Amino acid sequence: MKSPDSVRLGRRTVLGAAGAAAAGLSLAACGGSKGPGQAGAAATGKGGADGYDGPDVQLTYWNGLTGGDGPVMKKLVQKFMDANPKVKVTTTSIAWADLFQKLPAAVQSGKAPDICLMHTADIATNAARRVIQPIDDVVKGLNLTAADYADAVWKSAHYQDKQYAIPLDIHPAGLYYNKKVLTQVGADPTKPPTTKDEFMAVLDKCKSKGVKGYWVSALSVGGLIAQSMIFQNGGYMISDDGAKTGFGDQQAIDSISFFKSLIDGGYSPANAAGDGDWVSFSNNKSAFMIVGPWMVTPCKQAKGLEWGCAPIPVLGSDQQTWAGSHCFTLPRQVSQDKNKADAARFFVNWMSQHSVGWAEAGMVPARKSVRESAEFAQYTEVKQFEKMIDWAHFPPNVPGMSDTDPEWNKAVSLAMTGKQPVAEALQAAAEKGNKILEANKKKYG
Amino acid sequence: MTTTTTPIYVDEESAPRQNGGAPHRRRAYSRTRVGPLTYVAMTLISLIFVLPLVWMLLTTFKTESDARSIPIRIMPSEWTLRAYKLIFADAANPVYLWLVNSFAVSVLHMLLVLVVASTAAYALSRMRFVGRNVLFGVLIATLFVPGFIFFMPNYLTMSTLGWLDSYWALVVPGAANAFGVFFLRQFFLAIPRELEESALIDGANSWTIFTRIVLPLSKPALVTLAVLSFLGAWNDFVWPVFVLFSPDKMTLAPGLATLQGAYTTDYPVVMAGAAMAAIPVLILYVVVQRYVIEGVANSGLKG
Amino acid sequence: MAGTMGRPTLRHYRPITPYLFVAPFVVLLLTFLVFPAIFGVWISLHNWDFMLPGKPWVGLQNYIDLFDSASVIFHPFWNGMKNTFLFVLISVPFLVSIPLLLSLLLNKKFPGRTFFRAIIFTPFVLGVAVVGVLFGYLFDPEVGLVNGLLSGLGIGKIAWLTSQPQAWITILITTIWWTIGFNAVIFLAGLQSLPEQLYEAAELDGAGRWGKFRHITIPGLRNVFIFVLTTTILASANLFGQPYLLTHGGPGDSTTTAIMAMTNEGLRGFRMGTAAAMSYLLALVLALVSIANFLLMRERK
Question: Which chains does chain A touch, 3 or more C-beta pairs < 8 A?
Answer without folding.
Answer: B, C
